[in-house]
């Protein structure tokens, strides 16, 4: 599996609205979808995640669950994204098995990424690169961190945090394999077209 391309993170929508938005992003070329739902609505989360899995697989895209290995395993997601707490990666791998994708948040710290890569992470994520409406208090990462990481290991690298079409080229120039986006895609008046614009950027940098 290729960990590259537009990586959309769900925006808190639920049910049919969630599915409609994600379908438009997938039609526009999104390669990876992360289901991020911090509510405690267990049954609804399971239902939404299962519907997203079917939708993603129809479009040959991957579904990753945010920080919930139990949900990821119970509904057969492609993988999980975890924070960089001690043993989070190892615990997720033990629980989900070798075939699952496990991504790890490394914030603005190269040493965390080196450790995660050494432990077998399928990708590492750095950010926030720009002010983020989703996480306004997030630590700031510099674009050069991406290039430094790419010089140290071959594990795919994801950039996150306040990314727009205007700022995306800088991150791709520095070596980002994936761009994780919420607001600039799902807050757009034309989600499909916005995703297509991102896809065109990837085609330009990775042809």
Task: Provide the descriptors you would attach to this structure in a database record.
8-stranded parallel barrel; 207 residues; 8 strands; alpha/beta
Can you put this structure into words, describing what you see?
43% of the residues lie in helices and 18% in strands. Helix 2 links the parallel strand 2 and strand 3. The two termini are 18 Å apart. It has 207 residues and is an alpha/beta fold. The mean pLDDT is 95. The protein has one domain: Aldolase class I (TIM Barrel, Alpha-Beta Barrel). Strands 1-2-3-4-5-6-7-8 form an eight-stranded parallel beta barrel, surrounded by five helices. It is globular and about 40 Å long.
Tell me how many strands there are. 8
Q: How much β-strand is present in the residues?
A: 15-25%
Question: Radius of gyration over alpha carbons?
Answer: 16 Å
- Largest β sheet strand count, sense and barrel closure: 8 strands, parallel, barrel
Which structural class should the secondary elements be placed in?
alpha/beta
**CATH homologous superfamily heading:** Aldolase class I
């Amino acid at each position: 599996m290729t960990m590259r391309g537009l990586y959309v993170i769900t925006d808190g929508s639920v049910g049919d609205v969630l599915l409609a938005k994600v379908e438009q992003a997938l039609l526009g070329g999104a390669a990876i979808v992360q289901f991020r739902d911090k509510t405690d609505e267990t049954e609804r989360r399971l239902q939404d995640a299962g519907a997203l899995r079917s939708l993603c697989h129809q479009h040959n895209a991957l579904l990753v669950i945010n920080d919930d290995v139990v949900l990821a395993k119970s509904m057969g997601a492609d993988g999980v994204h975890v924070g960089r707490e001690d043993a989070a990666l190892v615990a997720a791998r033990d629980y989900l098995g070798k075939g699952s994708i496990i991504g790890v948040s490394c914030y603005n710290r190269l040493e965390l990424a080196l450790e995660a890569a050494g432990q077998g992470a399928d990708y590492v994520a750095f950010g926030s690169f720009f002010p983020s409406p989703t996480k306004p208090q997030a630590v700031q990462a510099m674009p050069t961190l991406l290039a430094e990481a790419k010089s140290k290991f071959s594990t795919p690298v994801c950039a996150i945090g306040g990314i727009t079409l205007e700022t995306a080229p800088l991150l791709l120039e520095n070596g980002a394999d994936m761009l994780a986006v919420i607001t600039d895609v799902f807050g757009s008046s034309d989600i499909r077209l916005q995703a297509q614009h991102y896809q065109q950027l990837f085609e330009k940098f990775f042809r």
